């Protein structure tokens, strides 16, 4: 039976994650308060940030930036797309 959480991002009850997706206290917070679809949306947003800003997940400064954006995106609703971003046509 799937785990259910009240997703702070979607503001509704939804299927919870199957595992803690991020290390530390932030990972536990995500596991307890974010649903699968919200996490998938974050992963897509993170990919866009990495590509558009030419970030390297190996660079500590870039990882810190991505973590800040993660918190904004999932918990604050304040994450924005990079300046000049144009979504690809379908």
UniProtKB/TrEMBL annotation:
<dbReference type="Pfam" id="PF04362">
    <property type="entry name" value="Iron_traffic"/>
</dbReference>
<dbReference type="InterPro" id="IPR007457">
    <property type="entry name" value="Fe_traffick_prot_YggX"/>
</dbReference>
<comment type="similarity">
    <text>Belongs to the Fe(2+)-trafficking protein family.</text>
</comment>
<dbReference type="GO" id="GO:0005506">
    <property type="term" value="F:iron ion binding"/>
</dbReference>
<protein>
    <recommendedName>
        <fullName>Probable Fe(2+)-trafficking protein</fullName>
    </recommendedName>
</protein>
<dbReference type="GO" id="GO:0034599">
    <property type="term" value="P:cellular response to oxidative stress"/>
</dbReference>
<dbReference type="GO" id="GO:0005829">
    <property type="term" value="C:cytosol"/>
</dbReference>
<keyword id="KW-0408">Iron</keyword>
<dbReference type="InterPro" id="IPR036766">
    <property type="entry name" value="Fe_traffick_prot_YggX_sf"/>
</dbReference>
<comment type="function">
    <text>Could be a mediator in iron transactions between iron acquisition and iron-requiring processes, such as synthesis and/or repair of Fe-S clusters in biosynthetic enzymes. Necessary to maintain high levels of aconitase under oxidative stress.</text>
</comment>
